[in-house]
């Protein structure tokens, strides 16, 4: 599985929409049909990276993705989300990602998004 920047963004946006102390599950994350396993795996990856706080259950049924409980977004998660939240910025960022196969490191995605923000604000690039 490759990291999917769109799923990562959807997870962080779901965390941001949650009420304080509200616990989310992977079912609360917007995704295409058939991406449930990917969502669960991306929640695990974001938890490992320190972008969210989550608990991943051990499923007894290997045919079902593990249930993930998201307890919140971290400072680093907000820092990343702040660079990609705006739909116009995200669209430009995805356009750049498409040129290199659709995925890059989080640091490079942030750099691309920050560049798009600078351009939108008319700041020197």
Textual characterization of the structure:
This protein is mainly α and 125 residues long. The protein has five helices and three strands, in the order αβαββααα. Helix 1 crosses helix 3 and helix 4 packs across helix 5. It is globular, with a radius of gyration of 15 Å. The chain starts with a helix and ends with a helix. The relative contact order is 0.16. The model has no long low-confidence stretch (mean pLDDT 89).
In short, what is this structure?
The protein is mainly alpha-helical and 125 residues long. The protein contains 5 helices and 3 strands.
Attribute tags:
125 residues; mainly alpha; 3-stranded antiparallel beta sheet; 5 helices; 53% helix; globular
* Helical fraction: 40-55%
Summarize model confidence as the mean pLDDT. Answer: 89
Rg, nearest Å: 15 Å
List the total number of helices.
5
Shape: globular
Class by SSE composition: mainly alpha
Q: What's the total count of β strands? A: 3
- The succession of helices and strands, N to C, reads HEHEEHHH
Strand order in space, largest sheet: 1-3-2
Beta strand %: 5-15%
Largest sheet: 3 strands, antiparallel
Task: Give the distance, in angstroms, between the N- and C-terminal Cα atoms.
Answer: 34 Å
Please give the oligomerization state of what you see. single chain
Low-confidence parts: none
